[in-house]
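REQUEST FORM: STRUCTURE PREDICTION
Request ID: SP-0412
Submitted by: Lab K.M.
Chain count: 1
Length (residues): 432
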Amino acid sequence: MTIRGTRANQPVDRVHEVRNNRGLAMTISATTAAKPATGTSGALAATRQDVSKPRLDYVDGVRALAALVVYLNHAYAQVTAGDVDQLRNPWSLASYSMVAGHLSVTVFIVISGFCLTLPVISNGGELRGGVWSFLKRRARRILPPYYAAVALCLLLIWTVIGKPTGSLWDYPIRVDAAAIFNHLILVQDLFSTSLINYVFWSIAVEWHIYFIVPLLVLFWRRYGATAVVLGCLIFGYGLRFAFSDTRLTRAHPQFLGMFALGMLAAHVARSDEPRFQRLRAVVPWSALAGVALMTVVGLTFHWGITLAEARFHWLDVPVGIMTTATLAAASRPGSNVLANVFSWPPLVAMGTFSYSFYLIHAPLLQLLWQYVLVPLHLSLEAMLASLLSLGFIVVALVSYGFFRLFEAPFMRSPSAIPVVKTKTDPAARAVS
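STATUS: Completed
RESULT:
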């Protein structure tokens, strides 16, 4: 999340609220999906789920692209403290990342709904192993790297980046016991928002959605796709407006609808039900994605950055539709230009460790800015160029090391989990 014009001497409550309303941090959903495979075998029933399983490359590519937008957002905010008018053209165009950064959160919520629904489809419409097994897998996948990142941020704050510098990092350093406790129990989207690390709020948002997933799966089976998707959109936005002046808006309840759109994309992509097969074949998904993208761009330029930031919840809808349509289009079999674009190897490689990149890029930006760029007395444009080039390489390499230490070991299931064979194409199997 970024702040425009924030300085250390601003009132805490004001800074807190601005950060919450401009939730520009990325929620990188740490879910993985399997690449289409060929052939069937009874041995599939004993397949072990681990990190070596194939992935849907285009999903990693979409995830990586959103991660890069968030990095641009926070690099821009790091050198300008969020002020949109400080850079000369063409660098001033980077100011629109103040809007795109939040919308990347929407992209990742839709991706999360997509990836977590694929194994449900392959398991006959039920959670593999039941509710408790699903929650344990989510905890094992999400929490170890998250807690490691919390510890790293606290260590850095207590040692080398804990003093006010007039930058974006001035708010996270105001750590207290309550902030630590709230982050440990994952309620930092509601309390202590943006302390310790200004991107951690979105981890709590998605963590809360996980507890609703079993109900969504049940309702989908009983009442169908239309009821669940429309119900989630109406209920989520109903909460957003009914509690618009309370802390509940910090949980972004409208994201429940975005998650349901991801579920819809998964069924369009992989379900063998006739209605979804028709949707897969008939709807011009690529064109729909393009129209939704142009709608977001047009509204953003028409409103301007400040007004667009105040209307993030409205922009979430076309971004959710855009992501849903993109995933559906890229999932079509045969020659697929969209899938090929998002399966570009550098993007796929970035997508594999994008969760770790998300978790620790903010304090790394502060380290580079405070100890390298400021002492060189560079212009703001030169600072941003440095963070987007050599700085990005440094952040990516450190993030990959963090991934190897704290994320990759937990991407392997501790035991073999049987895969239930259904009418669904075995290609629908996914790692969750």
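NOTES: The chain has one domain: 12-28+62-421.
Reviewed by: T.R.
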